[in-house]
Input
Amino acid sequence: MVPIFLSFLVILATAIIMSVLVSKMFKGHASGNSTSGSEGPTDTTILQPTGDEGAIGSWQLLLQNAGIASMHTGVTHLGNVIMLDRTNIGASQINLPNGMCRDSTTELTLKHDCTAHSVVFTPGPNTVRPLFIQTDTWCSSGQFLSDGSLVQTGGDFEGLYKVRHFRPCASSGTCDWEESTTEFLRDGRW
Output
């Protein structure tokens, strides 16, 4: 019971820190409501604090729907925001570009999935760009390295031993996830 409680405290502390960082980053950006994907119920909404620094409880909706239900969120050194969803719960609400699809004979839900399970959000224009992630990231972990890249490890089922890298780029760039085919975790991370 103690490890579960400690895990909950770590997750709670991370969420509080991320909300403070994101709220400071969004301060002063223009609002908008553009999205790259189908309209539908809100899975992940992007909010911005408004008013004076000392104002209490004032937020503005920046994006109605990011296309995925973000499980992991990280703010890059370039100011854009990386979001990750799990892959084994079905299609998301944002398609991968150029007819790209994720094919996996071992996938639990969709063996052929043409929707994104990761996006990059760019404040200012308030847009999202779909990213390609091959294996499930449920219960994975991630950390930014000193060069600004994000290493993301583990997950559920076929993602258990995976090592993934994301090297952030400007909002006009085409950076995407790279899943290693030579690096694997010695012990699975779930």
Q: What stands out?
A: The helical segments are 2-26. Residues 2-184 form one domain.
